Amino acid sequence: MKKKSKKKSKKKKFIIIAIILVVTIIIQTLPVLFPKPLGSESIVDENVILYYQKGDEKGANEVFDLLKEESDSILSKMKFENNEVTEVYLYKTQWQLAIREAGFVTLIIAPPWHIGDSHNGNVMMVSPYAPVEVHTHDSILTATLHEFVHSINFQINPELSYFWDNGIATYLSDQEPEDDDLYSRDVPTLDEMHTDNGLEFAEMGGYAFSYNYIEYLDDTYGWDSILEYVSGNGSYEEIFNKSEEEIYNDWCDNLEESSSME
């Protein structure tokens, strides 16, 4: 009888622990399922629907006006017909953005400079009036264009690499790096360029280097070749007539030459 009682007790504890874990996971991930800010209002045009929180009308209108002004140009540059409006979610604070990206655990791991993201073709951003380390009102607005480009890249080719995706986004949103961002650190290796970890990418200067990489390809091979690769219409050899490693070595030589001219 005692053995049966112990077994029942262990089983009961296991069930309780399992229930607690399931409830914790549900609570942790619940915000991800509801990206709209609480009590949100919306502004709409043919390319964008922007959801924002009451009290942030000024920031929302600035973001919306910028996207309205620049979205046609970006879509034209990408040669992409936007058949569906891009959903943009604007939050008053970083913590509201963070929990809707990956749940409450993101509050622990999100870097202090993080201001936006794009998931499955949407755009998630903090308001340009949110207090953020490193960033300014204007840099947050520019980053909104960056995330909009990410949303278009996803619709064109969801398999595009992290480095290429960010290179196109920084290039088309005119986030040109400072010389120190390029020439004061080591060029990432080809293996490092294949990372899909956002923190690793940022730490290696990925935003600056990916911009420069796309700029180099544009100057050397032309924008149409870049679009062919972005669209997944061929390999490096098929589009650029060189292997990825050969392109990488040529780019490194170009960086070294540019650095010596500074």
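[next item in queue]
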Amino acid sequence: MQTSSGPDFIGLEEAAAMKTGTRVTFVPGMPAVFSEALKNICFVKGVPLIRVVHPHMGIDKATGKDRQEKLYELTSQTGLPTMFHNEERPRNVWIEQLALAERIGAPGSPSLIPDDFELRSEALGLCAVVMGEDGMVWNMRILIDTPLGRKYGYSEEACSNAPDKVAAVVSLIDRRLEAQEECGSQYLVGKTLTAADVYWATVSISILPPPPEIMPVTQQNKRALEYFAMNSKIPAISKALSPRIENHQRYILTTYCETPAVLGGDPL
């Protein structure tokens, strides 16, 4: 397993004012799946990250102001994570963040976007159903009525449809892994690691939480990990999960990603 020390976090305004370096927003101690996925993409690509504290949602009781007002002023959005690189414009969408990481990655690092356009279409298509609008993470967010769920369009109807949509993506990934096994590959696309593997293995923790040696428990993430474990027991999702899904998740995270995950926060 690969590990790193730290981490230290800087403030949003300091990060925005910097002229050099790659800065990504995180919630210390929390495995926010989009941030964690981008962190793993950058880890594979050998991109050193400066970690930035992402402002919480809601109103600051002391000031009466929206906690994310400055983030919106700087980036015209409030999503997590925000990615700054040198003096370029901020990136907030997973596919733009991936393209940037691929461009600035260390020499000799794995290419996560295949050069072959047929394989590229397969890899990015899988990424889209996992990371994109109405995809797996999107529907995981609307399984319960929370401020985050409402941001993603929570309604009773959307909530009732979400488990089947999540399960459909899990089943798609499982069928893909089965077909790839028959071709002698451990990966979702082709014979080598792609972004599809990293994104799926990372965000699948939201429906299949890994053990503490991969995802340490902190004071900040304990309840989130309990919620992720509850997701794995939803009948439609539980039925779709398979040993292949689990084996692939553990293989990708422990072979290519930062494990145990370095989250910050307060360890338990």
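[queue empty]
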